[in-house]
Amino acid sequence: MRNLIISAALVAASLFGMTAQAAEAPAAPYVELSNPVPVAVPGKIEVVELFWYGCPHCYAFEPVINPWVEKLPSDVNFVRIPAMFGGPWDAHGQMFLTLEAMGVESKVHAAVFNAIQKEHKKLVDKNEMADFLATQGVDKDKFLATFDSFAIKGKIVQARDLAKKYEISGVPTMIVNGKYRFDVGSAGGAEQALQLADKLVDKERAANKAAAN
User: How many domains, in total, are found in the chain?
Assistant: First the structure.
């Protein structure tokens, strides 16, 4: 009888130990979305960065993510989407979408970030935006006309809809192929976030090849 009690105690201790180890297992650094979001360019693996010009963490991420984007293979499509949570988020997001529609965003992206983060310009009024952007070679009248256009209003709705589907709560956040969401903090840092993005891109590439065979 005593041996049975000891055996039962050992089994219970073993099970408790397994449970404790399972509880202590590190959580995955990304979340797999329950409802995958269609990508912008079918046939390409999409990597999205959601950001805000007023976010210091997004600004600090810039020197790390930009060289990475430049080296992405041809089967990967990188997309920036402004997070729009109201107030200056919306103003800056509309500015980004306007510059993108004008085809000049890549030329002034760094200057806008510097103006807000280093020079402490607010850039929340469209006329203030236009005046600043004119110093960067952007046509002031064209910017103002595009800013209030129907096309930009549609892009704002689309950006908000995507952020909702991605279920984001902060920035910078990355989405890989409309399926996997993570941020710099959960990944362990800027470099680690891009390493994770690479791994998930590889995972999607392998899945695509398997599906094609």
Answer: 1
pLDDT digits (tens, 9 = 90+) for 128-176: 999 999 999 999 999 999 999 999 999 999 999 999 999 999 999 999 9
**pTM for this model (two decimals):** 0.87
Place of tokens 């020079």: 119
3 state DSSP class of 118: coil
Q: Which residue range forms the structural domain that includes residue 87?
A: 31-212
Residues in the chain: 213
Q: Is residue 105 part of a domain?
A: yes
Indicate whether 8 belongs to any domain. no
**Whether 87 contacts 53, CB under 8 Å:** no
**For the chain, give me the number of helices (H) and strands (E)?**
9, 5
CB 157 within 8 A of CB 31: no
